[in-house]
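Exercise 7. Given the components listed, write out the predicted structure of the assembled complex. Treat all entries as one system.
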Amino acid sequence: MMLRPFTVKSKLAETSDTVTLGFAAADEGPATRFEPGQFMMVYVFGVGEVPLSISGDPSEPEVLVHTVRDVGAVTGAICSLRIGDSVGIRGPYGTSWPVEPTPGRDVVLVAGGIGLAPLRPALYHLLANRSRYDSVSVVYGSRTSADLLYREELAGWRSRPDVDFNITVDRDSPDWVGDVGMVTPLLDRLRFIPSNTTAIVCGPEIMMRVVAKDLIERDVHPDDIYVSLERNFKCGIGFCGHCQIGPKFACKDGPVAVYSSVADLLGQEEL
Amino acid sequence: MNLEPWRARSPLLSPLDDRAFEFLESVAEPMRLSAGEVLFRADTPANRFFLITTGTIALTITPPSEPTVTVQTFGENSLIGLSWLLPPHRWQWTARAVDDVTLALFDANPVLAACETDSDLYRQLLTVVARESGRRLQRLRIRFLDLYGKDQK
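Answer.
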């Protein structure tokens, strides 16, 4: 897939080290249609290329939205981009979250930290088609209240009567009124029918394993739990092997994977 | 107090057999707290335990000359109070209502008295408290990892 030129159209500081950028194609090509959970390879000229999950609304493909945390040279350069700056983008790549509605099915989303970004397109899709699902529950864990993403949208999502939206932070602070602790205890409060539930989990790998284990203890079937594989993506199309996890390529067989298919791979040392 | 609505998902009630469950129902009393009210204070006698039926309870500590810090919160179906079962029978944290809360209150005295003569009941309750302590320890260990911190990405 060819690298296409894109221009920064919008920029919003989410936290001290995380920004959300909107990119518009600088050529005459078609809009970049994507499925929730897919990622793009974003190239900063003269610096390098990184995979970034798409965090925007799949029904608005004219602008590619990425939420980026400054964790290295390339992501740092992306966070420093200004409106009007150019980058090269190719994609979308990878598998997607299972958001196609199955009437009457409960959906549980669990996000940890920056893991809310790849889940946001799925949430947009669920909310746009809300009547086609049964219960929709979200649990979002953050380090502190200062690290919460999408603050304005969070307020809107939490006020919706048709979504059970829960937030917890690892560390209390004077400005925080709400839950403190891991995401897993909040799962105990959610109302869903385990045998009728699709769970979508995105965050640090250890968190995803713990959440999956708790959901399985609550009788959610491992085939109905979806997680996001995070490895060092390089080519994005399953050629280079940088993101190989056992027999799988995280970029091609993932990032979204059924938990039952990767449970044995997650947590293995040196994989 | 009828505890059937919480039986299936409560870590306190779900492991109990019918006899133990019915015994706890017989000693349970409903209780309400308004937001901000203290359920119990640290270093006072732990002679009760609770099942949250609605709302959220925070375990807190107040450092000298600093605002109160919440260590962990607990919501519906949670067991509050583990210190009643084993010596020294004193609360380790202060528990406060985050919002309006309803609970099932269990007086530990008749429960402990029954345990004196009913080893099966004691075993079941000890198992509940040990399992819940273990779950909380595991979760705390994972919080120590600071998973959402920058160096973990």
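Discussion: The helical segments of chain A are 73-79, 116-128, 151-159, 184-187, 205-217, 259-262. Chain A touches chain B at residues 17, 69, 71, 112-114, 141-143, 147, 168, 170, 172, 174, 176-182, 184-186, 188-189, 203-204, 206-207, 210 (CB under 8 Å).
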